[in-house]
Amino acid sequence: MFGFVKNKWIYFLVGALLAVMVLIPFDWFMGKYNTLLIFIGLNTMVTVGLCLLMGYTGQVSLGQAAYYGIGAYISAILSKTYGVNPWLAMLIAAIVTGAFAYGIGYLIFRLKGNYLAMATLGLGLIIWILFRQLSEITGGPDGMGGIPYLSIGGFGFYTTFKRYYLVWFFCLALLLISQNIVRSRTGRALRAIHGSEDAAESIGINVAQFKVKIFALSAVFASIAGSLFVHHLRFVSPQPFGFLASVKLVVMAVIGGLASIWGAIFGAATTNILSDELLLGFGELDTIVYGLILMLVMIFMPQGLFVKLKEIIVQWRSKTTQKV
Amino acid sequence: MSEYILQTKGLSKIFGGLVALDKIDMEIEKGRISAIIGPNGAGKTTLFNLIAGVYSATSGEILFQGMRVNSMPAHRRASIGVARTFQHALLFGNMTVLENVMTGQHPRSQYGFLEAAFRLPKSYREERKISLEAIKYLNLVGLGMDKDKEALSLPLGRQKLLAIARALATEPKLLLLDEPGAGLTTLEKRALSDLIRRIIDMGITVLLVEHDMPLVMGLAEKIIVLDSGQKIAEGDANQIQKDERVIAVYLGEEVEG
After folding, report:
1. With respect to CATH, is domain B1-81+172-257 assigned 3.40.630.30?
2. In chain A, what are the domains?
3. B113 and A217 in contact by Cβ < 8 A?
4. Of residues A229, A249, A214, the one with CA closest to residue A90
5. N or C: at which end does chain A have fewer Cβ atoms within 10 angstroms?
6. What SS3 class is residue A319?
7. Which of A177, A196, A206 sits opposite B92 (nearest CB)?
8. What is the pTM of this model?
9. Could you give the ipTM of this predicted complex?
10. Which residues does chain A have within 8 Å of residue B112's beta carbon, measured at their own beta carbons?
């Protein structure tokens, strides 16, 4: 977003976008969509982690919802059952999820391609089953409620209006961090791994270690989103962290363009608007729609819908400027 | 300690039951151009991959600057000064020409996830150095003008030069070139020879695997001939060209007239 048109208009554009984002949750503007926008923000956080892992590093994860879930459950259990400060719980959740993913990554990143996809898929399913079965601490399939809201000092995030800002603050922070990583020595190393593992290794890049680290980072992103999720709904159940959720996250990443940081917002928004607004009456059939979208995007615009639109706009702009 | 930058002692590699390399003893002198030649299947690339750390040896030793590196992974070898290119350039297709070479600076820079994520001062300092170095190596191989192009948009000859620039960016002591001349025009080969001589002038030792006899004979000060996994001869161009075993197994068939 910041990179593709390098002139002063970009500051104007970014300023305008930020102003719109600040104004969105007011009732006279788009206030009734606050809940939807909060979920778009949460999904964007998970999706951008997935983009770093899949789009930039070229590693597949079909179990990303599990890390979203681990973050959610750790936050829920610590803050509700044990009365830990929610912020501290969130931090602990992020660290534990990251460490867990690091350990798992160490084991499964010996695998490649389809095998890696199967391993992440299987692991996601196991974790999901644990959420259901460890009912003593997780509340089982019925879930657990009464989770406290987040607050800073005396200021509590009691309304969706306030939580919209909270979620998008975190979301934009993670997007910026991701962009910084992509445009750095680390980002080049990750893209090098995607380009050719042999060549990357030959110029001193510790391929195995980078894969594990980026996997852990993507899990941390998912965990932060999960923590914000439970402090938003004040309720957690296994349902949003199953296999279909993982697939949906992949769809979001693909629509946004796997190798595009800001596309993650677009991907998350499109998918959320589809499932929460347009496909509400279709029930389980929405899975078919996601499958179709995934297929069509992969066949006709493998770089992603967002990136494709961006290219079309840039082309159109250069044509019009040539005419003038 | 020794004038040899690289030594192998009784180096063997067995794939399943196939002996790809059989007790190779070899010394590569510092600051010189050496070449490994041999017919297809002689074990040249296997030897290369053992030196670079892609495979681990079945038995025997590899000494780099007198240090045993047998079990060192490839990325560690790159950081202690062994760089290589591949038969196919293996460029990073998702990057520009400049970024490819910047990536080569990886082992000569340190900053990681944290400094990158929060753009700490260290990242700025190192990024500046990385891009300056990268441009230096691009200019050296003559690709300075192409720096913002997509790496794979270059013609093959220039892709191979880019791969060399990327390897040089790791600031190696020993540069392994795997068939650098393959697919190049005569003119490009001449430029390649000049480039390799300039690399030697930078104090870097060059070891190449090459099929192109005129290129090897014109460049290499020492030539090692492999056949069916065994070293059958070594010496300078004159000695090799007169060696009867070499003529019998190799030169006799491929370089007539």
Report:
1. no
2. 33-323 (1.10.3470)
3. yes
4. A229
5. C
6. helix
7. A196
8. 0.91
9. 0.91
10. 185-186
Q: CA A291, CA A283: separation in Å to the nearest integer? A: 15
- B87 part of contact set with chain A, CB < 8 Å: no
User: Which among A184, A186, A202 has CB closest to B78?
Assistant: A202
Residue type, A27: D
> A194: which chain B residues are within 8 Å (Cβ-Cβ)?
92, 94
Q: Which residues of A touch B (CB under 8 A)?
A: 177, 180-181, 184-189, 191-192, 194-196, 198-207, 213, 217, 259
8 A C-beta contact, residue B26 and residue B3: no
| Cα B7 to the center of its chain, rounded Å | 16
Of B149, B147, B162, residue with least CA distance to B192: B162
Show me where the domains of chain B are located. Answer: 1-81+172-257, 96-171
In angstroms, the CA B243 to CA B257 distance is 17
Digits of tens for pLDDT over chain B (257 positions)? 458 999 999 999 999 889 999 999 999 999 999 999 988 888 899 999 999 999 999 999 999 999 999 989 999 999 999 999 999 999 999 899 999 999 999 999 999 999 999 999 999 999 999 999 999 999 999 999 999 999 999 999 999 999 999 999 999 999 999 999 988 999 999 999 999 999 999 999 999 999 888 899 999 999 999 998 999 999 998 898 888 888 887 655 554 43
